[in-house]
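Thread: quick sanity check before group meeting

JM: Hey all, I'm pulling together slides for Thursday and realized we never actually wrote out the predicted structure for the chain we discussed last week. Dropping the sequence here so it's in one place. If anyone has concerns about the input, flag it before I start.
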Amino acid sequence: MVTNYTRALNLVKSNPPEQTLDVQLPRAKYLQLENAFYKLYPESLELRYPSLSYDSFTETVTVVTAPAYIHESAVGDLNVAISAYAEQYLSTYSEELASSTGNCGSTTTRRFRGAFEGSRTQPDGGVRYKSLDGQKVTVVVEVGFSENYTRLIESSASSARLTV
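JM (edit): ok, ran it. Output follows.
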């Protein structure tokens, strides 16, 4: 019998293009998978794919393998467009606010509290800036050419839930 852990580990090892796998794993098994991942890819802090995400609330591991060029191109275009819009809007209030805009790329996020403590996620991209009241705002970019609509909505909702 092939376990969820084995399925996830096999996908991480083979890293075929444009694959996504969601499986349920308790936190202890996820940590075991993460340890195996770092042994396979010791440079993984600089490596974007394959990637692991973990939602501790639902105990869901997501493995994502390398996307096609069109995916990366769309992420870049969206980051540029969102950043430009934020800069333009904020510049009508102050140059300092406009200059606070920046791309945050696909940074792995682990700083979650409460039910999501122990989670790990890596959005496709994002833009950060300061709002008019000085609060930090992050717009998360998720591109889903190869995902069905339901999975894309779930992914967006998960990212929104996990945002600190």
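AS: nice. The mean pLDDT is 80. The longest strand covers residues 125-130.
JM: adding both to the slides.
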